[in-house]
Amino acid sequence: CTAAQTGQLESLLSGFTEEEEQQMTRMLQRMDVLVKKASEVGVRLMVDAEQTYFQPAISRLTLEMQRKFNVEKPLVFNTYQCYLRDAYDSVTLDVELARREGWCFAAKLVRGAYMAQERARAAEIGYEDPINPTYEATNTMYHRCLNYVLEELKHNAKAKVMVASHNEDTVRFTLRR
């Protein structure tokens, strides 16, 4: 049984209140309805990424949907923000999890959209800036993640990636691969 079937959800963050846990469970149930409808009409569902302080919960919900619905084909895509320092770790961990558990890995790779917000929050609260230090470092991270996923595609025809980029160099890089 999956969390979506039982209505149970493991604790995502130890600081969640009972009400927040109930909200997460309801969100998981709503996502279940959306993914079922997407499957019925033959479209893929791309779950967008948000700020790092929301992302663990979003990624967990997406992972639950991938476990349930990405068995035969990649239906649910998780978004990986490559301007984050830990993007490669996130991608490689999720690919490995998909391999071990037998579901189809599906990713949308983006550079990211919350750089100023993330840096300001990190400075204000006093934690390490989660963003790559330079634009070049973000490009390197994007290409590193893309290379890894493209290698996975060579060995696993059911895995999929969406290259979500306006960057001409990234498009050329992808086509050369």
In terms of quaternary structure, the protein is single chain
Question: Termini, distance in Å?
Answer: 39 Å
Strand order of the largest sheet: 1-2-3-4
Instruction: Give the ordered list of helices and strands.
Output: HHEHEHEHHEH
Give the percentage of residues in beta strands: 5-15%
The total strand number stands at: 4
What this model shows, in words?
The chain is built from seven helices and four strands. The chain has helices spanning 3-6, 18-41, 55-69, 87-101, 115-125, 135-155, 168-176, and strands at 45-47, 76-81, 106-110, 160-163. Helix 2 (18-41) packs across helix 3 (55-69) and helix 4 (87-101) runs parallel beside helix 6.
Short description:
The protein is 56% helix and 10% strand. It is α/β, with parallel strands linked by helices and 177 residues long. Helix 2 packs across helix 3 (55-69) and helix 4 (87-101) packs parallel to helix 6.
List the helices and strands and how they pair.
Layout: H1 3-6, H2 18-41, E1 45-47, H3 55-69, E2 76-81, H4 87-101, E3 106-110, H5 115-125, H6 135-155, E4 160-163, H7 168-176
Parallel strand pairs: 1-2, 2-3, 3-4
Helix pairs in contact: 2-3, 4-6
Please tag this protein with its features.
177 residues, disordered N terminus, alpha/beta, four-stranded parallel beta sheet
